[in-house]
Design a protein that fits this description.
Layout (H helix, E strand, L loop, with lengths): L1 H9 L9 E6 L15 H13 L2 E6 L2 H6 L5 E3 L10 E10 L1 E6 L12 H4 L3 E5 L6 H6 L3 E5 L2 H10 L4 E5 H11 L7 E5 L5 E8 L5 H17 L2 H7 L11 H11 L3
Parallel strand pairs: 1-2, 6-7, 6-8
Antiparallel strand pairs: 3-10, 4-10, 5-8, 5-9
Helix pairs in contact: 2-8, 2-9, 6-7
């Protein structure tokens, strides 16, 4: 009996191989997409992180509205969009994004000069619903927004002239334009926004079983695939020039420190 008790003490309360961790993402190619090989950049990274430490991770693609409204799920994306509505036990940044402004060039007889808030006041701005942290504050500054739950809807409205500009993650906007308007993609102009770098993270709900232990495994897996080069191989194939943007790992480390609670 004493020997049996000793053996039981050696069995961990939770093992990485025992459970499937379910995460939710919004369809946002090339980061998250059920139609892309490997599920997109974000999905490939999450699965590589999981494989490195023996975690079983399942990614479900759900509408953004459902992700925002669900207060008990595990999310994938920018933590700033979800932290106001939900408590998380752990947030693990594993990639970064940069935002851009897009406009449809044929509707203007000159290139738009967009250098500050004052330049934006004359335009109707399209944004993904839920992505503005303080929409009311921006509207008080004289900015006018139209929101949608789908990126495709925003870019269709942009081409039709129902909105003048679209704020979107740079790679998402470029992918969406290429998908919707392959013959006219050069008619869409993109202007990267300075100081708009944000994290992409795994967010484990505060009540999720063994969240702290699972988070430690994800962090360990992330460090492993960065060290062996698998991380860079995945990210680089999604960028047009085939290489990581400058400052990628410095920014990633900054966000990891920010969300290291």
């Amino acid at each position: 009996m004493i020997y049996l008790r000793y053996l039981l003490l050696l069995i961990p309360l939770w093992t990485a191989q025992a459970d499937i961790v379910v995460l939710e993402a919004n369809e946002s190619p090339p980061y998250w997409s059920n139609s892309l090989p490997g599920g997109g950049l974000g999905s490939e990274l999450v699965q590589a992180i999981s494989d490195a430490v023996g975690l079983q991770t399942q990614i479900n693609f759900v509408p953004l509205s459902r992700m925002i409204e669900d207060k008990n799920n595990n999310d994938l994306g920018n933590p700033e969009f979800y932290m106001a509505q939900q408590e998380f036990a752990a947030i693990i940044p594993f990639a970064i994004t940069e935002a851009a402004i897009f406009y449809y060039r044929p509707r203007y007889n000159h290139a738009l000069k967009l250098t500050g808030f004052n330049d934006l006041k004359q335009y109707r701005l399209g944004v993904l619903k839920g992505t503005l942290i303080d929409r009311h504050a921006f509207e008080q500054m004289g900015l006018h927004f139209e929101s949608s739950y789908a990126q495709a809807s925003l870019f269709k409205k942009l081409k039709l002239g129902r909105i003048d500009l679209v704020f979107e993650i740079d790679l998402v906007g470029r992918q969406m334009i290429a998908q919707l308007f392959p013959e006219q993609k050069d008619d869409f102009i993109r202007q990267p926004l300075p100081n708009s770098i944000s994290p992409i993270a795994i967010m484990l709900d505060a009540e999720y079983p063994h969240a702290v232990e699972i988070a430690a495994q994800y962090r360990k897996g992330l460090a492993a695939i960065i060290a062996n080069g698998r991380y860079q191989q995945i990210v680089e194939k999604y960028y047009p020039d085939g290489q990581l943007p400058s400052g990628w790992f410095a920014n990633l480390q900054r966000f990891q420190q920010l969300y290291s609670f």
